[in-house]
Prior knowledge:
Elements: E1 2-3, E2 21-26, H1 29-37, E3 46-49, E4 57-60, H2 62-65, H3 75-81, E5 86-88, H4 92-109, E6 113-117, E7 120-124, H5 135-150, E8 154-159, H6 162-168, E9 177-179, H7 185-190, H8 202-210, H9 216-220, H10 224-231, H11 235-241, E10 258-269, H12 272-293, E11 296-306, E12 311-317, H13 325-339, E13 346-357
Helix pairs in contact: 4-5, 10-11, 12-13
Amino acid sequence: MFRSGRFQSSPAWEQTLLRKIVHIDMDAFFASVEQRDNPALRGQPVAVGGSAERGVVAAASYEARQFGVRSAMPSVSAKRRCPQLIFVKPRFDVYKAVSRQIRAIFARYSGLVEPLSLDEAYLDVTEDRLGIGSAIRVAASIRRDILAETGLTASAGISYNKFLAKVASDQNKPNGQFVVLPEDGAAFVAALPARRFYGVGPRTAERMAQLGIHTGADLRAQSLGFLQQHFGKSALYLYHASRGEDDRPVRPDRVRKSVGGERTYARDLQSSAELHAALDEIIDIVWQRVAQQGVQGRTLTLKMKYADFRQVTRARSLPAPILERQQFDEVARSILGCLLPVPLGVRLLGLSLSGFEPPSGSLAPRVAEPAPAQYPLQF
């Protein structure tokens, strides 16, 4: 199913050369792979992740999401919301293999593919490689190929820039697509809840609400100076995105520098036991992100902020990439051990992996510059 809303035309889009961008997002990817491979799980609420006390949900099936189960949620909380929840251990090797199949499909349609993780990517289909004639039909064809070759469903967003394509891919999930036409962009964004803008998490959304900002229209009504005062580095992005503008190209050579996570605690952590327990939780979250991104890094960095806001970081670089969760865990704990005992309470703890190397059997798509368009592509 796909559709586009009809909104009042905006002249801003007419001033730039229009790209045709497709954002493909697999539907509940990890959980869907598990349901595909185990028929007993189909139609059941499934969580991929550990069920132990400190486990974290890596992915949830749509049946589980109906109970409020979400990725990055503590497993204890997920089980409380959905007592019949079935936990399945992650099989990242399988997810990576399926991701390679999907990226091979992308490569048929475009030489400009920017993977964001194992389960989503941007494609610039402005050059109509297969002569399909419409970006909407290109997206539908990609989704049909994915279903036929992997048995999994994907959703798609189609628009003239990356921001709108990504937002659009959420509109008709699961197994649907949505297009935001150039003449509809500004009005579509005006009606968009502020929390759906990239980088607007719960805390930022709460701050916006306190300032009377609830929608894209409210954001657009603010001056750049006002946004800079309240949202710092995000201000320029918010200023342009609220107008439906985003000139970032699809970059197949985009290199991610690090993957990490951190937590700020309501109560300062004091004891070694508290810090190790907090680190276990962060390790769970960061390792899942590392596996989802399909990256392999050699340098692990621990960040600690004390109660007096003094910050320290310690890093350890290994001769070869960290490939296993156990090694990741051991290195992180070893770094923490070098900082114990702490002189003051700890209010923030963070962990990140960097120093990436191409993995064996690299997931990076083999891309070439697209040939000159033989057919003019429409939306």
